Amino acid sequence: MVYSERPIGLIEKLMVPVGLCGYSLYLVHHPYLRWLLKTFPSLWTGHSALWVLGILPWLMLAPILVFSWLYYYFIENGSIAFGKRLWTKAHPNLL
């Protein structure tokens, strides 16, 4: 836990899950964006500034956050727990 002089705010509370699934964000974002570009090429051209600067980023960001959190929760956590079990079986006298 990180010590702070002030109470933790809403932004910090919202950023903790993003920080936890950072590696998953790294893994998920590129395939999703490639799929989005390939499947919907008309999303990127000929639209208003509201679409390009307001709606489109959320269309890209929201599914990436959801997929990366699911990847973190089901795959990364499972792998970490499995690694801990293997380590404790292989090195029981180190605990």
Count every helix, treating DSSP H or I runs of 4 or more residues as helices: 3
The 3D shape can be described as flat
- Total discrete domains: 1
Q: Measured on Cα atoms, how large is the radius of gyration? A: 19 Å
Query: What share of the residues lie within helices?
Result: over 70%
Nearest-integer average pLDDT:
84
Observed structural traits:
single chain, 95 residues, mainly alpha, 3 helices
Strand-helix topology:
Elements: H1 10-20, H2 22-39, H3 49-90
Helix pairs in contact: 2-3
Could you characterize what this model shows?
The structure is a single chain. The protein is an all-alpha fold and 95 residues long. It has one domain. Helix content is 75%, strand content 0%. It has three helices and no strands. The longest helix has 42 residues, at 49-90. It is flat and about 65 Å long. The mean pLDDT is 84.
Question: Briefly, what is this?
Answer:
With 95 residues, this protein is mostly helical.
